[in-house]
Amino acid sequence: MIAGSIVALVTPMTASGDIDWPALDKLVEWHINEGTNAIVAVGTTGESATLTVDEHCAVIKRVVEQTRKRVPIIAGTGANSTREAVELTRAAQAAGADACLLVTPYYNKPTQEGLYLHFKAIAEAVAIPQILYNVPGRTGCDMHNDTVLRLATIDNIVGLKDATGDVPRGIDLIKRCGPDFAVYSGDDATALDLMLAGGSGDISVTANVVPKLMSQMCAAALRGDAASARELNAQMLPLHQKLFVESNPIPVKWAVAELGIIGSGIRLPLTPLSENVRPVVRAAMRSAGV
């Protein structure tokens, strides 16, 4: 089972908005060296919504190749079209990804039965391990725990990224699904509490900026060392908050660019971080020792 600090990797871009392939390679190497436990390629933080299908698949393939099996790669392959999600998931499997992350369909607001049939169809079409992703604040679609429980009976649906920030809801799912189904936090601000309650890790935005610190915090939480985990997490709390002063991934891409690892490119309709909030994000980085 994939566990620990799982970075929701940003996709580096040039000033013109093209994918910066050398910077992507450099970014992957940095995360491996800093102790990141696994990488999500082309999740929502990786600007999946603005990449073409060909670009999407190419980034997954490049990250898999650059990683060379040193850490697991989870490919973001969700879509609001079931057929497109199947296509992306097949491409990720062919590229050598270890698992796929599938966001709930956005905009079209399916019913709970529609969600069940959507994810069931993808799982039956592609044998790769699949992690569901519930982030209703971004998609306008909330997958209920009862629906997740139904899907957890399918062999290759192996976990859920819960980005609701509702820790009691996550704990309820952990208790009802049992140890063979992984529940990951997708909300950095509440990830520690979920892991201490039995969660398997954090699929993290903050890890883009402080990968070593996040890896250390997750390791402490997963071994039950609450005191050490809380101390480490306290250093990151300002980042957990301030990396969302504008829509993700605007602040986090700016922060990683400030570290000199990637350039400042971002793709419309997203725009560079506003000048007036840059000092706020910079102060949060400094509080974390960056």
Describe the overall structure.
By secondary structure, this protein is an alpha/beta fold. It has a single domain, classed as TIM Barrel (Alpha-Beta Barrel). The protein contains twelve helices and eight strands. Strands 1-2-3-4-5-6-7-8 form an eight-stranded parallel barrel, surrounded by six helices.
Summarize the structure.
The chain is an alpha/beta fold and 290 residues long.
Task: Tell me the layout of helices and strands.
Blueprint: E1 4-8, H1 21-34, E2 38-41, H2 53-67, E3 73-76, H3 82-95, E4 99-103, H4 112-125, E5 130-134, H5 136-139, H6 145-151, E6 157-162, H7 167-177, E7 182-185, H8 188-196, E8 201-204, H9 211-222, H10 226-242, H11 250-258, H12 278-287
Parallel strand pairs: 1-2, 1-8, 2-3, 3-4, 4-5, 5-6, 6-7, 7-8
Helix pairs in contact: 1-2, 2-3, 3-4, 4-6, 7-8, 8-10, 9-10, 10-12
Number of domains: 1
pLDDT < 50 runs, ≥5 residues:
none
Q: Mean pLDDT across all residues, rounded?
A: 97
Task: Find the CATH topology.
Answer: TIM Barrel
Give the structural class: alpha/beta
Keywords for this entry:
290 residues; alpha/beta; TIM Barrel; eight-stranded parallel beta barrel; 12 helices
